[in-house]
Amino acid sequence: LKNLQEQYNVQKQTIVEQASSMQESIKSVSPGTQFENVILPPTLRDKAPVRPVIQQTMTTQLPISRPLPAEEIARIKRLIPSTPYSIRIASTGSLANAKNYTLSFIQEGLNDVFITVEFTGPNSKQYIVCYGNYQKESEANQKLLELQFLGFEGEFVPVNLPYSILLGEYRTEDQAKSSQRNYTDVKDYAYLKSNQFAVASLAGAFASEDIANLFLQQYSSLFDKQIVIR
Fold first, then answer.
1. Nearest partner of 10 among 225, 223, 215, judged by Cα
2. Which helix (H) or strand (E) is 211 found in, with range?
3. Are the CB atoms for 227 and 74 separated by under 8 Å?
4. Do 202 and 186 form a contact (C-beta atoms < 8 A)?
5. Bridge partners of 125?
6. 138 CB contacts (<8 Å, ≥6 apart)?
7. pTM score, two decimals?
């Protein structure tokens, strides 16, 4: 994750305090200085005042990031069924263009369309418009052939994006859609995934856990959210 933050110029929300004053104090003692060990008698030693420890607190206006907990790294929740494959139907360097692509596909009847992000370099992103969630690559391939046969146009490439951000799980689709209004900063990346028990509200789809965590750290509404295998 540290390498990814440096590579893509994503600010790491950690403050490192350098002990320069300690180094100066050490340098000020000449090499020839000798120190005399003084042992206090028990009575004097017990009565010797204890110098209080002074703690300094540094405040900052930087947003606090949410590092991935160790237990979350060890075991990431897997949604059932696992559907890591989607169909990439468009890609662009502009979020506005990606939103226009999404709207046009929805108007043509492709409702399971969502946007995700691929980091392409420092301060640059590629916005990927995806369709559907599939358990196997063969299922994604079969669906894209159907879409092409029906006359839809696009890149139509199966992609393996197993990680996502879980916004919440709900009993009905209406509840899940209603909850997405609380995440205005990531509403363009939100989509739903259903099974017979619940409806999961998700944000984005990513090739690795590190990329998902990198995306998560950029939005304050996601700091307490969980990375899952979708």
1. 215
2. helix 209-216
3. no
4. no
5. 119
6. none
7. 0.66
Question: What's the rounded Cα separation, in Å, for the pair 3 and 55?
Answer: 32
Angle at 146 between CA 144 and CA 151, to 5 degrees: 95
Torsion of CA 198, 204, 209, 211, to 10 degrees: -170
- For residues 181 and 17, the model is more confident at 181
Closest CA to 175 of 154, 158, 194: 194
Tokens of 167: 């916004």
In DSSP terms, which residues pair with 159 in a beta bridge? 86
**Residue 203 burial (CB < 10 Å; 0-12/13-18/19+)?**
buried
| Separation between Cα atoms, residue 100 and residue 131, nearest integer Å | 14
Q: What is the model's pLDDT at position 76?
A: 86
Cβ atoms 119, 8 nearer than 8 A: yes
What pLDDT, in 10s, does the model give residues 88-147?
A: 999 999 999 999 999 999 999 888 999 999 987 777 789 999 999 999 999 999 999 999
Count other C-beta atoms under 10 Å from residue 131's C-beta. 24
Distance CA 117, CA 8 (A): 13
